[in-house]
């Protein structure tokens, strides 16, 4: 079983990944945000560091898939490689931040890497509006994220909607993060788990 959790910056992906990993005995694979040596520079100077930052995430995602996701029996991943390409890199290109040469190179590399990656069995998309994203970003207190503009988050949300509508690699379910506090409210968590029960079950035997 391979579950992928998708969503914009601050949607609650890491929190949901941790909750589902513990409840359903899934091995969590988290996005390497704090490992990216370009990320703070990227938010300060996007045109200069867009390609570098995206290539780091692509390389790290390949490493995670090869070592953890592809061979894993029960795995849950915080953000997918598909989002890297179809949401974040595409937005940078469409906004003129990443030039066409860098985008072609990135897209070619993504296409080659994608062929080697195991697709999810279930995609869980956390849909969150701007106020929810801003609230979550403020709560986790990453300095470089505090400078993210509202327009950037809103453009990403638009691309997420288009991508999720067209996504057809696996079963998929959308969870409305604006109306549910699945971290702090047990009733809201129960609603989320009820949505996911058709696809997720605990292992019959404990994992060793």
TrEMBL record:
Stated EC number for the protein is 2.7.1.113, 2.7.1.76
The UniProt transmembrane annotation reads none
For the keyword Transferase, the answer is yes
Q: What are the recorded GO MF terms, alphabetically?
A: ATP binding; deoxyadenosine kinase activity; deoxyguanosine kinase activity
Q: Which residues form the signal peptide?
A: none
Keywords attached to this entry:
ATP-binding, Kinase, Nucleotide-binding, Transferase
Q: Which residues form the active site?
A: 78
Assigned GO CC terms? cytoplasm
Domain (Deoxynucleoside kinase): residue spans on this chain: 4-196
The residues that hold ATP are 7-15, 180-182
One Pfam family for this entry, by name?
dNK
State where substrate binds. 31, 43, 54, 79, 84, 145
Please give the InterPro entries that the UniProt record associates with this protein: DCK/DGK, Deoxyribonucleoside_kinase, DNK_dom, P-loop_NTPase
The name this protein goes by in its record: Deoxyadenosine kinase @ Deoxyguanosine kinase
User: What organism, scientifically named, is this protein from?
Assistant: uncultured Truepera sp
Lineage, please? Bacteria, Thermotogati, Deinococcota, Deinococci, Trueperales
């Amino acid at each position: 079983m391979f579950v992928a959790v998708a969503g914009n910056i601050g949607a609650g992906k890491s929190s949901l990944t941790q909750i589902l990993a513990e409840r359903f005995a899934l091995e969590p694979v988290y996005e390497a945000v704090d490992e990216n040596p370009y990320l703070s520079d990227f938010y300060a100077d996007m045109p200069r560091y867009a390609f570098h930052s995206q290539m780091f995430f692509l390389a790290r995602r390949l490493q995670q898939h090869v070592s953890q996701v592809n061979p894993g029996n029960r795995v849950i991943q915080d953000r997918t490689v598909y989002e890297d390409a179809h949401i974040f890199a595409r937005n940078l290109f469409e906004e003129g931040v990443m030039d066409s040469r860098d985008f072609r190179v990135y897209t070619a590399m993504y296409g080659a890497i994608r062929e080697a990656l195991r697709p999810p069995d279930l995609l869980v998309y956390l849909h969150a509006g701007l106020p929810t994203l801003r609230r979550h970003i403020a709560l986790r207190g990453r300095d470089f994220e505090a400078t993210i503009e509202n327009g950037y988050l809103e453009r990403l949300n638009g691309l997420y909607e288009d991508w999720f509508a067209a996504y057809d690699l696996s079963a998929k379910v959308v969870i409305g993060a604006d109306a549910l506090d699945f971290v702090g409210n047990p009733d809201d968590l129960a609603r989320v788990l009820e949505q996911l029960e058709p696809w997720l079950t605990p292992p019959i035997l404990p994992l060793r």
